[in-house]
Amino acid sequence: MMKKIFNISAALAALTLSLGACAPTEVDDLFNESAAERLDKALTDYKSYFTDKGGKWELLYFANTDEQGFYFVVTFHDDGSVDIAGNNKFTTGGSDADGQKDFDVSIGYVKDTSLWEVQGDDGPSISFNSLNDAFHFFSDPGIIPPGATRANGAGHEGDFEFNVLSREENSCILRGKKHGLLMTMNRLPADTDDEQWIAQAVANQTNHFSPNVTTLYMTTPSGKRFVLSDYRVSLPGNQQMTPDMKRFLWLFVPEGGDAVNEREHETMVVTPKGIHFYQPLDFLTEYDASANAVQDFYFQPDGSLLGDDGATTINAGDIVDYYLLSSRVWVVDRESMSESLTEAYNNTLSAMLNLTVSGRQVTKSNITSLKLIYKTVSKTEGYYALEIKFSATLKGRASSNYTTCLKLDVARVDEKTIKMSCNLAADDAFDTAPGNDFFKPLPEFATFVNLLTSGNLTLTPSSALNPVAMNIANGAGVSLDVALGK
Question: Assign residue 257 a region: left if phi > 0, alpha if psi is -120 to 50, beta otherwise?
């Protein structure tokens, strides 16, 4: 895989040269100041660079390339102190009785103050040179990350001292002194609320990524697609591991390509605005000459990701395919039903009290859940259905709970639209007797079903990356929300 190479500027090279000057030389004659004075001035310049405009930066941190990156907010102060704030699965690790990190203890957001300095060895560098509870465990060899493949005594292999490879007015590239990984820092407004800003990054992980969505798709400007999955599951011995895109270590395979010989992988960090890969995705151009080596992607209003080239996208692919997968159970949010559906639903509940079942009047009834499901009959057979769970009390009897399924025909119209139909008059419309006894006789229920299956239904996910909740609407005033459930 091609690596991004950053050229050190001529000014930085001159600074490095000055470090080797211990006494006046012919070089010193070219300047009005000694090498020591020039070095001191350069270090002061770098300190001012980091503390300028409020001194607040986001740090896109990678301890190693075997696990996800982590998001921090760093605030540098002129007095040599630094605030580092974060909230991830390791900063939420409290301590057990032996003082060791316990990753089951959640303490949430962490912000700690420690020391920092600009150093002049091996070019300009910054060092977080005193213990910071939000940050330094990444470089502690005694803390072994869960699932780590590295030997005891290695820890995360993270750095806390960094060479400054390049800098612009509001961003810079750092390289870990010990392990050599690249980091990006971007300046933030001085009035940024650290906790709220980091909370947005955490919310993005929760809202846009889910263990229930195990495949994503990256599409290049020419339309070529790459299938994205959990890289760790593809490793030898991990085939029984449950896929989880929230590990943020992704496998890339060209759609229709060879998953053994045409595969790449990359780690990333989730930010308040999107995701940042450890390095530009140069491999894209090897499979598609028109592709761009994107590195940063930004969340769009529909929840998809758009690359920094303005053309490369990442989403969950075909929403209808995701909805129709036979393992899905969609729980209907009855509070979200449109006015016409709600009216028909309430009328059904009222009409049930006028029923006589098995010679006894229904004295009380309640629908406890509605679900759109695929009901499996055998390994090769099944059907879509509206599952109704309800309770009913017959006169002189105790209350009983029932489950019945109304069979539905569901057809794909396009990648966003389905068509549902139902033959309520059929003898086998319901799979169990309670459906025939309690719902089939009711014209009010027929009205509800007719509304639910009227017209083409458009599926609109809450997130194009994480379509575990969506709105279903026919464009004529009938709509409801569903969420993935059990």
Answer: beta
Structure tokens at 450: 């007719």
Q: What letter would DSSP give residue 52? A: G
Q: State the pairing for strand pair 417-421/296-299.
A: unpaired
How do residues 115-135 score in pLDDT, each as one tens digit? 999 998 778 999 999 989 888
The mean predicted confidence, pLDDT, of the chain is 87
Domain ranges in the chain with CATH number 2.40.128:
10-201
CA dihedral 258, 263, 269, 272 (to 10 degrees): -40
pLDDT tens digits for range 134-167: 888 888 776 665 555 555 566 778 889 999 999 9
Q: Can you tell me whether residue 175 is helix, strand or coil?
A: strand
Q: Is the pLDDT of residue 61 over 50?
A: yes
With contact defined as beta carbons under 8 Å apart, do 474 and 456 qualify? Answer: yes
- At residue 7, does pLDDT exceed 50? no
CA-nearest of 174, 193, 190 to 60 is 174
Assess contact for 234 and 240: CB atoms under 8 A: no
Give 315's contacts (C-beta < 8 A, 6+ positions apart): 216, 217, 219, 303, 304, 305, 464, 465
Q: Decide if 156 contacts 137 (C-beta within 8 A).
A: yes
Range list of β-strands (E), 120-215: 125-127, 161-167, 171-176, 182-187
Averaged over 39-51, what is the pLDDT?
A: 90
How many CB atoms are located within 10 Å of the residue 144 CB? Answer: 16
- φ, ψ of residue 351 to 5 degrees: the values are -65, -30
Count, residues in the chain:
486
Does 10-201 carry CATH code 1.10.287? no
Q: Is the pLDDT of residue 329 over 80?
A: yes
Q: Distance (Å, rounded) from C-alpha 19 to C-alpha 394?
A: 92
Please say whether the beta carbons of 234 and 251 come within 8 A.
yes
- Cβ 221 vs Cβ 311: under 8 Å: yes
CA distance 350 to 367: 11
DSSP-assigned letter for residue 430: B
Q: Evaluate the CA torsion angle 365, 370, 374, 379 in order and state its sign.
A: negative
